[in-house]
Amino acid sequence: MDHLTRPLGVIRRRTLLRALLGRPGGDGYRNIPVTGDAVGTARFGRLLLPSEIRLRERIPLRVVVAHDRSVADDVELRIAPQTWPLSITVSLVDVRPEDFLVEGPDAAVLTVPEDGDSGELAFTFIPQTLGPKVLLVRFEHDHEFLRIARIRTEVVAVAKTSAQASVDASPLPAHRAAAPDVTPHVTPSSETSPPTSPRAPPGPEARNRPPTSTTRSAPSSYRTSAPLTQPPSGRARHHALRGSRIRAASAAPGCLTCWAW
């Protein structure tokens, strides 16, 4: 439990998202003490910057990953080392150009030995405006997020103190886990029909067989019970034949045999 009787490692989701994005919120981060059950080897990020810095004057931010804690503001890091020495990536987060100009790179790698401190890294800033300022520094190991430190300082016209700026940090991760398995797994459904086997080539008998008609019959809704045209029978046939002969006779008036019928 912490000083507010809250269990260690349990934080608000919004606070965690802001910490991962490098966007602090609320009353700020707290350096929560970590019990011996925390995962990884403990190392301590030491960030040195004056609490008051002069406007338009170059000022270095010095960073060291130490083997032991020496001051209360050292940021504890929990690292799961595979081999020594370790490579710790230190980078600046969201430096606003209206607050600071950064000379040189905004990220670098510190080599941390097993039994000692790393070398010293320095980021050079040039303050642009007066007032309280905040700098964010991210620590990573092998592309794995470790922690974000926040440094509070103030840009003044004339510095009156040489004290170091206060440093706090995002919540320390309580555990690590492997990445989830995102491999797609497809299970065939029982409703789907089984795959059909490839059709064998036709034999000599099938090749010599005459082709069958592929004409399809009309749908049942278009079929009729009788043929569309039927030959006339009986008296209707007699009148039809006589009418055709009369028409032929009118076309050839010189033929007298047609009228004798």
Characterization of this structure:
There is one protein chain. Helices cover 13% and strands 30% of the residues. The protein is of the alpha+beta class and 261 residues long. It has a domain at 13-169: Immunoglobulins (Immunoglobulin-like, Sandwich), CATH 2.60.40. The protein is elongated and about 135 Å long. The termini are far apart. Residues 24-37 and 254-261 have low confidence and may be disordered.
Features:
261 residues; Immunoglobulin-like; six-stranded mixed β-sheet; 13% helix; elongated; disordered C terminus
Q: CATH class of the domain at 13-169, anyone?
A: Mainly Beta
Largest sheet: 6 strands, mixed
Count up the helices.
Answer: 4
CATH superfamily of the domain at 13-169: Immunoglobulins
Please state roughly what percent of the residues sit in beta strands, choosing from under 5%, 5-15%, 15-25%, 25-35%, 35-45% or over 45%: 25-35%
Measured distance between first and last alpha carbons: 129 Å
From the structure provided, what is the oligomeric state, counting identical versus distinct chains?
Answer: single chain
- Using the alpha-carbon principal axes, give the shape: elongated
